[in-house]
Amino acid sequence: MRPVAISVDPPEVSRNLANKSGYTFPILSDPDAAVIRRYHILQPAGSPDEHDIARPAEFLVDSSKTVRWCNFTEDIRVRARADEMLAAARQLR
Amino acid sequence: MFGIAALTCNGAFFVNAPLQRLFPWLSLLLAIVALSFLVVGARLLIVHPNVYRGRMLSVVLTVIALLPAGLSVFGFVTTRKLPSAAAAPQVGQQVPDFTLSDTSGKPVSLDQLLAASPASTTQSQASAPKAVLLIFYRGYW
Questions:
Q1: Are A43 and A63 in the same domain?
Q2: Which range of residues forms the domain containing residue A78?
Q3: Is the dihedral of CA A73, A67, A93, A1 positive or negative?
Q4: Residues near A16 by beta carbon (within 8 Å), at least 6 away in sequence
Q5: B98-136 pLDDT, tens per residue?
Q6: Total number of domains constituting chain A
Q7: B138–A61: do the CB atoms touch at under 8 Å?
């Protein structure tokens, strides 16, 4: 399973985050929130400076691009935990 | 005291605890308990003004108690202000394709991510992954 993180942060910001935290998985930038919009998970004016951002969402997508597991939190303080996501990935055969 | 406990509960989100889901409610509950104690205290002060002297101290303590309790309630409301994800792709549905820039500015597509070791990743994953976990986050880190 390959984790991929996506946000509206520009590549430079994500690069800093990856360097600082030692992340080796891909972090992609969607500055205009175009993809976020297409996934219907836009939070209009959700950022501190009122830009459109993504509401937190996780999708486990198989090779046929079909969602096998997904999670949409109701509280930004509660996110999918690593063990939940790993358990979902382990169920794939 | 309960107000501070309510606020501490918010700090607990950074701990990857299995009971994480309960913390927002616990935080709200503690804030409500703190506020009820405040109401009881205020009533005692009005009913027996002679017994409970030291008004300055009570005012200071009230402010100290109100702050964390108020912050907890405020936090509870604001962190739950999220749009519905009802229209988002659900289990069994296909997700839309995309091509986005990675941290070095190189475009990466969903197809590439599903294929064996995309050139852009530093991960040395020889075979194609069984799945890709797309994690959309708020950003502004």
A1: no
A2: 56-93
A3: negative
A4: none
A5: 999 999 999 999 999 998 765 545 555 557 788 999 999
A6: 2
A7: no
